[in-house]
């Protein structure tokens, strides 16, 4: 019933009801009233037309009812999607805040470690003059290990 998407709901409902009522009236009239000479003469075509209109009206009403049910389901799913999008936006904000905070912590730790290493390098550069033996101090190893650890 793809055509139901293009027609207004009121038009569909009125058309279904009119066809259904016409089918009921024509079928009842053709089957049960034989005294009217005009209908008695065209009794068989009236019965066929009445049944056809009745079947068509029932089919259209069923299609319209299914269409309305699907529209309600779509509306419910759209509402859930909107709620999920709102929750997603909130979670994204929290995640961005955490990432910015962690990045700031990493930068701060990196700057602190860089300052420490620069300060220690000057001290050891003066200690080991050219021609002397250069040994990696324990402070450097500890600073590098501290830099590699996850922020607390």
Describe it.
- The protein is mostly helical and 152 residues long.
- It is built from 4 helices and no strands.
- The mean pLDDT is 81.
- It has one domain.
- The two termini are 62 Å apart.
Q: What integer value in Å does the Rg equal? A: 42 Å
Count of domains: 1
**SSE run:** HHHH
Structural class: mainly alpha
Shape: rod-shaped
Say how many strands there are.
Answer: 0
Largest β-sheet summary: none
Please name the defining characteristics of this protein.
rod-shaped, mainly alpha
Topology:
Blueprint: H1 9-32, H2 37-41, H3 43-127, H4 138-148
Entry summary:
The chain is mainly α and 152 residues long.
């Amino acid at each position: 019933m793809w055509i139901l998407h293009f027609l207004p709901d009121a038009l569909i409902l009125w058309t279904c009801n009119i066809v259904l009522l016409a089918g009921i009236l024509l079928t009842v009239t053709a089957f049960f009233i034989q005294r009217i000479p005009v209908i008695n003469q065209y009794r068989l075509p009236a019965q066929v037309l009445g049944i056809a209109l009745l079947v068509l009206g029932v089919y259209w009403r069923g299609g319209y009812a299914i269409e309305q049910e699907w529209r309600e389901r779509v509306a419910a799913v759209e509402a859930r999607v909107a709620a999920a999008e709102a929750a997603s936006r909130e979670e994204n904000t929290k995640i961005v805040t955490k990432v910015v905070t962690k990045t700031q912590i990493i930068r701060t730790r990196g700057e602190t470690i860089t300052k420490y290493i620069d300060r220690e390098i000057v001290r050891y550069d003066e200690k080991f003059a050219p021609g002397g033996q250069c040994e990696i101090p324990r402070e450097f190893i500890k600073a590098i290990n501290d830099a590699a650890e996850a922020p607390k």
